Amino acid sequence: MKGILTQCRFEVIRIFRNPYYVFWSLMMPIAFYFIYTNVFNTELPDQDEWQAHFLMSMTTFSVMGSAVMNFGIRMVQEHTQGWARFMKITPFPSWAYFSAKMFGQMIMHLLSIIVIFTVGSIINGIALTAGQWIAAGAWILIASIPFLALGSLIGTMKKVETASGVSNILYLGLAILGGMWMPMEAFPPLLQNIGEWLPSYYFGSGAWEIVLGNPPELLSIAMLIVYMVVFMYLAIFIRRKRQV
Amino acid sequence: MSNVIILENVSKKFGKVQAVNNVSISIEKGSAVAILGPNGAGKTTTISMMLGLLDPNEGKVELLGKSPKQVAVRNKIGAMLQEVSVMDMLKVHEVLTMFRSYYSSPLSMEELIALTGLEKADLKKKADKLSGGQKRRLGFAIALAGNPDVIFFDEPTVGLDTTARRKFWNKVESLKEKGKTIIFTTHYLEEADDFSERIILFNNGEIIADGEPEDIKRNLTTRSVSFETEDQDAIAKMETVDTVMRCYEKDGVVYVVTEDTDFVLSELFRLNISAKNIRINQGRLDDVFEQLTGDKEEAEAG
Asked: Which end of chain B is more exposed for a tag (fewer CB within 10 A), N or C?
């Protein structure tokens, strides 16, 4: 047990020492947020609602990024560098190692949520109830798990270059088509139809509903669970197949 | 003496390539064993099977009396493997703390530092920013973190300079004195000769010699007298001479392997063998290895 705690601690340290984390997961979404809500004049009828909506978009964008990019690519890295193989000769079980990595990721997501919420609310003075802030934060944290599953699926790739290329495309594709950069209503109908099948849309949707004062739709929860199961199943399937 | 490692008729194939072919090895507790062989001889595959990283296609592997995959076994072993880079974003002392936390009775940080020659200044550096030699020392420390009874080193000194190599082996010597079982692979005969009590010589996935370094050397590095002769009985005659270890003919030349070439020469004349082109061949230590693996290749070709 002590081993797991130590491992969790070091996983968190490793993540925070990574300069890409601070840049991609914190600076980028915050910069986007500032630009889209202050520099461009969107002339929307309800400015407050848009600002709260877009803060949720940028937070989910950030968290999805760390889950898909950071988690997956790092797994591939550890594999190619022989690290995963070396861990097998230590008495530390691989499930514990994986759990510690997940834990580190969740801590990272939590921190991203806190930082982006805080900075965003300071920039635009967003008025949400304490309950809404907490519910939105909890939703984003928990609903990030399907994206960790997607990350671990990317983590089965053999080359860092492939993993990084694929996860970049997936990440940006999911973010844009899922309505994280601009509301889906602004899309042509075809893209809207595609977007309505994407996990990123349901990830954002739950948080957007919460800031409007509604609970996340059941459909969002169901879709995310289905995606999680599919990603996990595929990741496990590929790993098993490779071991034979 | 109990055996800490037992390999019974172990074979491993990668696709069509037979990497290890029907190998049986027993290694006694507290011994230092070198697995020697040219590149591609099956050394790393064998070590990987001992460690449970690879499953043999055939045969049985036991480490400390159990399957090498058991946690209880892993708690008592340590290894330095090839092509393992260090976890990034962590400092050296953090990496060591992390590894020590995996084992039930790890070495103390002080002991680890003393045993591996890591320096105080190195401890605070990021592990992935270390120089090659420093990384190797860290790898050594990681291998010892759990205070293992059995330690594996897979080509531990490749790429190290002479000084670093000597330092490394001095540290290994001190582990031997503590009664640890040490298994290392190398393609340097000298290392195998200097630091092991037993050499297992591999070639083409098979064991071609197994014994004390002295024995292997004695059989192969002694000097020989060679000559050409018409005398059909020359070999039979020379075999009766004292100090002669073996006689053989190769390409029309008779070789008499001996510890005392002077004596063999005098006997050669005394026995009245009509010999031409008499030569004394100096056996070189470095040739042992080539000779053994070379003989093997000839045997296979023939």
From this structure: C
Measure in Å the smallest separation between the Cα of B235 and chain A Cα atoms: 54
C-alpha distances in Å from residue B159, one per residue of B14, B65, B132, B135, B164? 27, 34, 8, 12, 10
Which B residues 101-160 touch A at CB under 8 Å? 101-104, 146
Q: Any chain A CB within 8 A of the CB of B269?
A: no
Written as six digits, the tokens of B56 are 């043999």
CA contacts within 13 A on the Cβ side of B252 = 4
Nearest CB partner across the interface for A89, out of B77, B85, B89? B77
Shortest distance, CA B156 to any CA of chain A (angstroms): 15
Q: CA A140: distance to chain centroid?
A: 8
| pLDDT mean values, one per 10 residues, chain B (302 residues) | 89 92 94 89 93 94 94 95 83 93 93 86 89 88 95 90 88 91 88 89 87 76 83 87 85 86 89 88 63 53 42
For B143, the closest chain A residue by CA position comes to A90
With beta carbons less than 8 A apart as the criterion, state whether B92 and B122 touch: yes
- Report the chain A residue with the minimal C-alpha distance to residue B49: A89
Q: Tell me the nearest-neighbour CA distance from A47 into chain B, angstroms.
A: 42
Look up tokens 């097998």; give the residue: A88
Cα torsion through B198, B13, B54, B154, rounded to 10: 40
- A129: how many CB neighbours lie within 10 A of its CB? 10
Give the residue carrying structure tokens 């090659």. B132
Task: List the single residue in B84, B97, B103 with the smallest CB-CB distance to A91.
Answer: B103
Q: Name the residue in chain B with its Cα closest to that of A74.
A: B88
What are the tokens at B220?
């192969």
Chain B hits for A86, CB-CB cut-off 8 Å, are 79, 81, 84
Q: CA quadruple A193, A219, A128, A28: dihedral positive or negative?
A: negative
Query: Cβ(B241)–Cβ(B264) under 8 Å?
Result: yes
Domain count, chain A: 1
| B184 contacts: CB under 8 Å, gap ≥ 6 | B32, B33, B34, B35, B152, B153, B154, B156, B172, B191, B195, B196
Amino acid occupying residue B211: G
> Is the predicted pLDDT of residue A21 greater than 70, yes or no?
yes
- Torsion, Cα B69 B74 B77 B78, to 10 degrees, reads 100
Please indicate if any CB of chain B lies within 8 Å of the CB of A10: yes
Cβ pair B206, B43 in contact under 8 A: no
> Residue A88 and residue B88: Cβ atoms within 8 Å?
no
| Side-chain half-sphere exposure of A41, counting CA atoms within 13 A | 1
Q: Is A144 helix (H, G, I), strand (E, B) or coil?
A: coil
Dihedral of the CA atoms A31, A34, A39, A44 (nearest 10)? Answer: 130
Whether the CB of A159 is below 8 Å from some CB of chain B: the reply is no
**Domain region containing A109:** 2-243
Q: Which residue in chain A is spatially nearest to B69 when comparing CA positions?
A: A89
Model's pTM, two decimal places? 0.80
